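Researcher: We're teaching a course module on how sequence relates to structure. For the next exercise, students receive a sequence and then see the predicted structure as tokens, so they can try to spot secondary structure elements on their own. Here is the exercise chain.
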Amino acid sequence: MDVADTPTLERAQKWLLHHSLEHLHGPAEIPGRKDDLVVLCLLRDGEPHLRTFVEHHFALGAKHLVFLDNGSTDGTVEALKEYDNVTVLRTRLPYRTYQVSMKQYLVQRFGHGRWTLYADVDELFDYPYSDVVSLKALLGYLNDNRYTAVVAHMLDVFPESALSEVAEGGSLKERHRFYDLADVIVREYSEAGDLDNVVSNGEIKIYQGGVQKRLFGISPLLTKHSLVFLDGKLRPMDLSDHFAGGARVADFTGLLLHYKLSAGLYGMVRREVEERSYPNRYGKYDKYAKVLEGAPSLPITSETSRELGNVNDLAHNGFLAVSEEYLSFVDREERRKTGESRALLKALSETRGQLGAESRRTAVLRDRVQELERDLEQERRRAGQLEERNRNLEKHAANLERRLRTVYSSRAGRLLTFLGRVKTVAARVFAKKRG
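Model: And here is the predicted structure for the students to work with:
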């Protein structure tokens, strides 16, 4: 299809989606204000994560949750109907074809003039100093600064013990307390493409890879524009479902705690390899399957793994970006609540430059190491090709030698040898006569 036809295709998909929807539970319209948050989620068979997802975001301060179910058969819809302030819609259109349209539809239907957070059911949103700053205060800060999008980075969290398809008891959040930044690839924000965004903090980057790179050899995109405000200019799910266009990007980054590395991964991968209902970019699910099939118990932790205390740890180590203005805002909230200033904020502000510089140096070194590894791999391939060529030449030479021995041992070969000797004798006689 021609690129010029893409808007027509998108409109057709959204029309079909709108007319395929079933309204199963909760209010169809959600009134609210600019400092209210509506959480949006597209899911299928998400029951194992539901309770954690719903309770986390209500505890954070969300006003309402909207779920678009895509054909669950595990009791997901029935479980959601037990909650107040939850709306449940359903469509049976194929996810592989309509995934971006589904997510765009949710944002555009429920996000005009207010903030919406899109998160998958295995993701939990948080932000730096949420222990000090309430969600309502955070949205007020965003509104006061006329921001329309917050970048959030996904962080794969995992248990200390080996991953197994046998679910363990206890809370998912309590078990999955570890993370690993060693294989996170850092890119400049400008590498995201032509989004026409205004970015207020140069420390905001694009992340890829992480622990899944080490385990499965894939480099998933870890950066999303999850929290957005539709102001008539912002384009949700622009370029892909990870980005937004026409946005004024806030001066701090949020967090999406990602619980993909849980017991349910085994079953989800098996189902996906059979059904092929998700986009399988770069053979991602085949790579999952290859590793998981050979490891019913998969060790994840390594010497670079760390235990996560709270989201503030990730601001301290530079994974999350926070500006001076945001830190001042947090300090004002602290003084408003307790009458005291948090000395940590001043110390953190003074070390941010050092952390940023160290992070940039680490990123440059990591990129250089990867470049050298690629060069080394190319040289190894060249050496292998030369070695193979030499082996072929040796075989060819040996074959020629065998053929020559065969010729010389034949009757014709003996005649050639005799004629050669005659020629040599004749040359000597001729030379002697001339002398």
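Model: If you want an answer key for the exercise: Residues 343-409 form the longest helix (67 residues). The first strand starts at residue 22 and ends at 25.
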